[in-house]
């Protein structure tokens, strides 16, 4: 996997050079878009990356609904009917849903074709597009079906962030905060300062540092068997909070915000179980509260959230496992957490 990180030279110009090189001789390109990226991002991409000017494109609906086996099957049928062979390259232009779906389609087509991820959301640039996790949802349960299939190239170009509303930027910030919590105290403090002082600017350097940390972790553990699990900080709570938020009567939370709430719970338990400095929890809670209203849960809600936590992919031997922090940059993986501790953390969220 080659990651084109943001720098002074435009990432799309570097992609243009890479796709003009021998490795992509005779490649036939298909571009996967949704309705938003078709309108706001595709014109820039094909103007700046000459080898993609003849690409065919395939469009799917916006959001989680596209991560469905029926849609993946339609895309495979389109590729087959168009005579796409193993030299085909699927270019995924979009946020996390597009790169999850496109990576899945590339992994399955003719036992695997190359794909290129061009994330257009902050959450995609910071996390989802990097690392080769592909996923579809099953029966309303998120990311239950998938393969590890590393992209040939991840091209991170911050110019696509200009097309995003504030809410989408904030959604992505939580995955950045998580990566810096486990991987770089200096960048973590810098990002917290900017959020607290209202001077937030996602510079190319900050984005590049986040992508570099994730890329380095994935290189050590591409199949999520050990160290990569540190990137799940906040996610055992976060996935369950996200799923529960789609229940009747709740306000639906996007993935990043749910992880943002999950990080509060994980830090709360880290203080109690691992002796994390409570000032780290307090500062993070203040940062999260600047970006959205943390949900308030009753005992009844905690039962609903626990139902999802019991189904978490990472559980083992009937235990709910979490990543917690001893300190910034000192995560501990696979810690069993009792259901009463989970209820307590959820009740103290806000
Ligand atoms: N999003 C966490 C990972 O890719 O491992």
Can you characterise this structure?
This protein is α/β, with parallel strands linked by helices and 350 residues long. The protein has 2 domains: 2-163, Rossmann fold (3-Layer(aba) Sandwich), CATH 3.40.50.1970; 166-347, Dehydroquinate synthase-like - alpha domain (Dehydroquinate synthase-like, alpha domain), CATH 1.20.1090. It has helices at 11-19, 35-40, 42-48, 69-81, 96-108, 122-128, 166-183, 185-197, 204-220, 235-245, 255-274, 278-291, 299-309, 339-347, and strands spanning 2-4, 28-34, 56-60, 88-94, 114-119, 136-138, 141-145, 153-155, 321-327, 330-336. The strands form 3 sheets. The chain has a 6-stranded parallel sheet with strand order 1-8-5-4-2-3, sandwiched between helices. A two-stranded antiparallel sheet has the order 6-7. α7 (166-183) packs across α9, α10 (235-245) packs across α13 and α11 packs antiparallel against α12. It binds glycine.
Side by side, the strands of the main sheet go 1-8-5-4-2-3
For the record, what is the CATH homologous superfamily label of the largest domain? Dehydroquinate synthase-like - alpha domain
Radius of gyration: 20 Å
Query: Distance N terminus to C terminus?
Result: 41 Å
Indicate the proportion of strand residues: 15-25%
Shape: globular
- Number of DSSP helical runs: 14
List the uncertain runs. Answer: none
Structural class of the secondary elements?
Answer: alpha/beta
Averaged pLDDT: 95
> What is the N-to-C order of secondary-structure elements (H for helix, E for strand)?
EHEHHEHEHEHEEEHHHHHHHEEH
Structure summary, number of beta strands: 10
The major pleated sheet works out as: 6 strands, parallel
Specify the CATH class of the largest domain. Answer: Mainly Alpha
């Amino acid at each position: 996997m080659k990651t084109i990180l943001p720098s002074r030279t435009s990432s799309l110009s570097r992609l243009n050079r890479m796709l003009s090189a021998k490795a992509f001789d005779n490649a036939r390109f298909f571009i996967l878009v949704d309705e938003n990226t078709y309108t706001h991002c595709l014109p820039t991409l094909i103007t700046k990356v000459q080898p993609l000017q003849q690409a065919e494109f395939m469009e799917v609906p916006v959001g989680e609904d596209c991560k469905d086996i029926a849609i993946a099957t339609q895309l495979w049928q389109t590729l087959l009917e168009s005579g796409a062979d193993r030299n085909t390259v699927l270019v995924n232009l979009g946020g996390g849903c597009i790169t999850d779906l496109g990576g899945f389609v590339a992994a399955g087509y003719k036992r695997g074709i190359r794909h290129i991820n061009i994330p257009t959301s902050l959450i995609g640039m910071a996390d989802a597009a990097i690392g080769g996790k592909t996923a579809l949802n099953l029966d309303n349960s998120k990311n239950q079906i998938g393969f590890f299939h590393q992209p040939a190239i991840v091209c991170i170009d911050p110019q696509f962030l200009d097309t995003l509303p504030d809410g989408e930027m904030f959604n992505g910030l939580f995955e950045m905060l998580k990566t810096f919590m486990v991987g770089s105290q200096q960048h973590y403090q810098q990002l917290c300062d900017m959020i607290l002082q209202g001077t937030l600017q996602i510079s190319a350097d900050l984005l590049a540092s986040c992508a570099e940390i994730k890329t380095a972790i994935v290189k050590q553990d591409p199949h999520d068997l050990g160290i990569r699990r540190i990137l799940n900080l906040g996610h055992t709570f976060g996935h369950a909070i996200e799923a529960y938020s789609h229940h009747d009567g709740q306000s639906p939370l996007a993935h990043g915000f749910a992880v943002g709430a999950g990080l509060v719970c994980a830090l709360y338990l880290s203080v109690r179980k691992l002796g994390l400095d409570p000032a780290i929890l307090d500062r993070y809670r203040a940062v999260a509260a600047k970006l959205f209203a943390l949900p308030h849960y009753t005992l009844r809600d905690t039962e609903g959230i626990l139902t999802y936590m019991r189904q978490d992919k990472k559980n083992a031997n009937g235990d709910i496992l979490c990543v917690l922090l001893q300190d910034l940059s000192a995560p501990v993986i696979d810690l069993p957490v009792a259901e009463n501790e989970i209820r307590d953390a959820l009740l103290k969220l806000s």
